[in-house]
Design goal:
The protein has about 350 residues and is of the alpha/beta class. The protein contains 10 helices and 18 strands. β13, α7 (about 240-255) and β14 form a beta-alpha-beta unit. α5 packs parallel to α6. The longest helix is centred in the C-terminal third of the chain and has 13 residues, at about 240-255.
Length: about 350
């Protein structure tokens, strides 16, 4: 008897030669990208880079179209990375024989983060060498696996890593929303987890505006915003000289001449650009409150401060909002709350939040 415990899959059986029985292959109904064949390869490569292409299922070719199977339902931010005409759809796929899965190598699917061709695993993972070996075998685009040896620490928000598999390096080029970022993970902070949040901020910024990115790092906010229009001015500040070195490299890499990369303390640099910014991005959770007076100083009339914080679930927004309001009041400015939102879970009972306030 044939049994099937997956309600989304069904066996397809055909008689074998000489009446010897049947051979069966499993079919699965999955989310997919439907695209014209002539436009399929660029989209396939981007899906692969984003770890969204499901290599356990066979790509379907029907008529003029390809159906590219997905590992999960893509977010809007994922779809923005795809060029050309395509359609989000569903289709039945056959299992790709011989394709390794994590389930074939490990007791459970590991949690890891992809930055370019580097996979990051946390230091609490048991048997990191075994996990790293599995990642390298399943994810063919991964060239290095690092295990974190420290939390984000120090004035420059860096981490220490150990290479557990692959090439012995901590540098890579990460692709996001059509932008490329050179990064050395031990010398400057970067996380791909905020890709959707960066896209959300981008949608609020208009041609002709000035944006101050007070803690720019290697430029994931600044460069994406600058690429939206050459008529947007971006003032990108960071105190970490390595981060600014990479930021300047990324400005050239992405041909964004409208980014001004500045090495310095944002509290001091704000004085040079007082009253110029239409948007002030404060992505420095834990410490952004120390720069609120400078942020208000940067604000033009009706500018918006995008203030990020790490807060307990018992007080997600109120205390942080009060800090912004008090800083504006010290400068004789009024405020209007635009939005308060949870960006992501940070730790048990703690969240990374964004509070957006108009400074009048």
């Amino acid at each position: 008897m044939l049994t099937n415990n997956n309600p989304h899959s069904s066996p397809t059986c055909q008689p074998t030669a000489a009446g010897e029985g049947v051979s069966c292959s499993s079919k699965m109904k999955k989310s997919c990208i439907k695209v014209l064949k002539r436009e399929g390869e660029p989209i396939r490569r981007v899906l692969l880079e984003m770890d969204l292409l499901d290599n356990s299922a066979r790509i379907i070719s029907e008529g003029e179209h390809l159906y590219l199977p997905l590992t999960e339902n893509p977010q809007e931010s994922h779809l923005m990375n795809l060029t050309g005409e395509f359609e989000l759809s569903e289709h039945e796929f056959e299992e790709q024989k011989g394709q390794l899965r994590f389930e074939d190598l490990l007791d459970e699917v590991p949690h890891f983060e992809l930055v370019g061709d580097i996979a990051l695993i946390e230091d609490n993972v048991s048997e990191p060498e075994k996990v790293a070996d599995a990642i390298m075998k399943v994810k063919k685009n991964v060239k290095t696996v690092l295990v974190a040896m420290s939390p984000v620490e120090g004035e420059f928000r860096t981490r220490r890593f150990r290479v557990v598999a692959g090439e012995k390096r901590t540098s890579t080029v990460h692709k996001e929303y059509g932008c490329r970022y050179y990064i050395d993970l031990e010398r400057a902070y970067f996380t791909p987890r905020l890709a959707t949040e960066r896209s959300r901020i981008l949608a609020q910024i208009s041609k002709g505006q000035t944006v101050a990115d007070m803690f720019a790092g290697v430029g994931p906010y600044s460069i994406m915003i600058a690429k939206k229009s050459s008529e947007i001015r971006v003032i990108a500040i960071d105190k970490n000289p390595d981060a600014v070195e990479f930021l300047r490299r990324n400005v050239e890499l992405n041909s964004t001449s409208n980014v001004e990369a500045i090495e310095g303390d944002a509290n001091l640099e704000a004085k040079k650009f007082a009253g110029l910014a239409d948007h002030v991005i404060m992505n420095l959770p834990h410490n952004a409150n120390e720069f609120l007076d400078a942020a208000v100083k940067l604000c033009a009339s009706n500018a918006i401060i995008h203030y990020y914080d790490i807060t307990p679930e018992a007080d997600l927004f109120d205390s942080s909002l009060k800090l912004v309001e008090e800083a504006a009041s010290r400068a004789g400015r009024a405020t209007e709350l635009i939005e308060s939102r949870v960006v992501r879970s940070y730790a048990p009972h703690q969240s990374n939040v964004c509070i957006e306030v108009k400074v009048i």
